[in-house]
Write a structure and sequence with these properties.
Enoyl-CoA_hydra/iso; Rossmann fold; 2-enoyl-CoA Hydratase, Chain A, domain 1; 6-stranded antiparallel β-sheet; 6-stranded mixed β-sheet
Length: 636
């Protein structure tokens, strides 16, 4: 009998059994994976993290740059150098990158304090504390000279660009120039921005040619920043010095980039859709590319661009409509997105717009048809979907890639319908909830709620619709349901994943298992599934706070069952065989039989939890504290 079978036999589908199976799959698969990204060699032997080979393009320029320096012989040697180091993190906000750096430093034994810098006075913590090193993973302010000039306690800046790259728009220019690779550099703070000596750097391929600035930041930049900071701290602890640099050196390939001006963000609809889409992606999610639409006075900002595939249009009527329209003219709609004519008879889908020039429309990002309200033809084309299903063997991968992870009422209802159809297919044994690239889900759509006349009513309808989605897959008694977190999970997404049979995430995912930031009690059946998954004490602790946690922490407490890779590419490469391994490691018949034996009383109990949650939420939705928190969020 295999070890996995022994674990399954003794587990009896308890919480510990789920974790044991997840850990065993990880440990049996993770002997020593080598990720080959065209000479980008990374040996990862850390526990329970699966990695696999990722198909890459040829990067001739990429190969000419040394990818990274090695510090020590293995992870334990790195840990021995970093252990007990007193680190101060200074950041503009405690975002995913800052959280990831702090979490990983602590996992290596460092003592980490984090200070969010709101004003100059906040820098005094660096003067008062007894720190060995200061790290700025995400800081929008200039570091005072008294701090960076202290050579005994260096101040390190994390710059999201390759060595030699300088300026505040590194990722924007990487996308604009169609860079095949990019990097992260940790350098020492000096008077001149991004000009200090280099402590460490990492290079990575830009694998997704349709990535946005923010997607690149929360994925590749975050992953590589963590690794680069660790190596920089280790170098400091072993007595090394940073490397001065000059243009022309073999590893200095970047340049000083000019400051982005408003004119650089302006859309010219006479350009081909691919060029317009690239411009929008450069400034998505902030501040947005801007331009005009035929039929609307005043400038608009554009988000969520997707170039169309002309061969997928349905019928001559649609093609005629495209050829007769003017560049910058909306010609159709689908799922609240609008299709806009561009140059060379090309066209572009845009999912969200923002304008402060339209009466009755608030200056926030909204689904495009809530801003552009003129009648448009509903287009039944195949080239734009925010919900789709991929079938492989007996597995259905359900993607719901909603902008910023927010799910409004209609999106939730369409997702529920998709799941209802899957539930009826007897030959599907496993359902994998994929969410989107950047977010699994963030729950209710706060921007849509802010725009409507009666936010409290829309809020309640929205949470009920999301509850309906969860109920749909909870009732899949003949299928194994797995939540796969390719991207971050807000409160709603975190609780959605807790209701699945298993949860998989990669190492750079962050989860926010609390509703407190919006002054909400929460729903999504969390009062039933979260304590079942991680225990009542831990559930209370998480939901009583306001903090996000990284997937590695979520794994350690049982909120995530399997850590799969360091990023979504490695997760995607290994997902199907991992899903299959889960299915093979359990007694599928016994497992599904246990689900099918859920009694009427069990479902009644579940609905009682939902009813109690909604009772609390109805009160929350009428509370000024919620409305204030929501406005602060959507107008930030």
């Amino acid at each position: 009998m295999s070890l996995l079978r022994i674990v399954q036999k003794s587990a009896k589908w308890s919480l510990s059994g789920h974790q044991a199976i997840g850990r065993m799959i990880c440990s049996q698969t993770n002997t020593k994976y080598q990720v080959d990204r065209r000479k980008y060699q990374t040996i990862n032997t850390s526990r329970d993290v699966l990695m696999g080979s990722h198909k890459q393009q040829k990067y001739e320029q990429f190969l000419s740059i040394p990818q990274r320096e090695q510090i020590g012989n293995n992870e334990s040697e790195m840990a021995s150098l970093i252990r007990s180091t007193k680190c101060l993190l200074l950041c503009h906000s405690y975002n995913t990158l800052s959280l990831a750096v702090a979490t990983e430093l602590r996992s290596f034994g460092a003592e980490v304090d984090v200070k969010v810098i709101h004003n100059e006075h906040d820098f005094t913590i660096a003067d008062e504390g007894d720190f060995d090193i200061i790290i700025c993973p995400f800081l929008a302010r200039r570091v005072p000279e008294r701090i960076w000039s202290n050579k005994k306690r260096p101040c390190l800046i994390v710059h999201p660009g390759i060595p030699g790259d300088r300026g505040p728009a590194s990722l924007e220019f990487a996308i604009k120039n169609k860079a095949l690779h990019w990097g992260v550099t940790v350098l020492q703070a000096e008077e001149e921005f991004d000009r200090g000596p280099i402590w460490a750097y990492s290079m990575y391929p830009i694998s997704d040619r349709n990535t946005t600035k923010t997607e690149l930041y929360v994925s590749e930049v975050t992953e590589n920043a963590v690794d680069t900071v660790l190596r920089a701290v280790a170098k400091f602890k072993q007595g090394d010095s940073p490397k001065p640099w000059q243009y022309g050196a073999v590893d200095i390939k970047g340049n000083l980039q000019p400051k982005i001006k408003k004119a650089d963000r302006r859309i010219d609809w006479n350009q081909h859709a691919s060029d317009v889409a690239r411009l929008i992606r450069m400034f998505d999610t902030q501040p947005g590319a801007h331009g005009f639409l035929k039929g609307i006075d005043g400038e608009i900002r554009f988000f969520g661009a997707k170039e169309t595939q002309p061969l997928l249009y349905c019928g001559d009527e649609m093609r005629d409509l495209l050829s007769s329209a003017e560049p910058g003219e909306p010609i159709g709609m689908k799922h609240n997105a609008i299709l806009i004519k561009c140059g060379e008879d090309s066209s572009l889908w845009v999912s969200h717009l923002k304008s402060n020039k339209i009466p009755g429309v608030k200056d926030i990002k909204l689904p495009a048809t809530m801003v552009y309200t003129r009648p448009l033809a509903e287009m039944n084309t195949l080239d734009y979907e925010d919900i789709w299903v991929e079938r492989r063997d007996n597995v259905a991968y359900v993607h719901f890639d909603f902008y910023n992870g927010a799910m409004n009422v209609s999106q939730s209802q369409r997702l529920q319908t998709t799941l209802k159809n899957i539930k009826l297919q007897d030959d599907i044994h496993i359902v994998v909830l994929m969410g989107g690239k950047r977010f699994f889900s963030t729950g209710i759509h706060l921007n849509v709620i802010e725009q409507v006349d009666e936010p409290h009513i829309e809020s309640y309808a929205n949470i009920e619709a999301i509850d309906g989605v969860i109920k749909e897959y909870v009732q899949m008694e003949d299928k194994l349901v797995i939540a796969c977190l390719q991207g971050n999970a807000g409160a709603g997404g975190c609780m959605m994943s807790a209701a699945a049979d298993y949860t998989i995430a990669h190492k750079c995912v962050s989860l926010t298992p609390t509703y407190k930031n919006m002054n909400l009690y929460g729903s999504e059946y969390w009062t039933y599934f979260l304590p079942k998954k991680i225990g009542e004490e831990m559930a209370l602790r998480l939901t009583s706070g306001t903090d996000s946690i990284m997937a590695s922490e979520a794994y350690s407490i049982g909120l995530v069952d399997i850590l799969l890779g360091r990023n979504r590419y490695e997760l995607q490469d290994n997902l199907h065989r991992t899903v299959t391994a889960i299915w093979n490691s359990i007694d599928a018949g016994l497992f599904l039989h246990s689900k099918s034996r859920r009694s009427e009383k069990w479902y009644e109990n579940l609905e009682e939890h939902r009813a109690a949650e909604l009772h609390h939420m109805k009160k929350c939705f009428s509370d000024p504290a919620y409305h204030s928190a929501r406005r602060n969020f959507v107008f930030h």
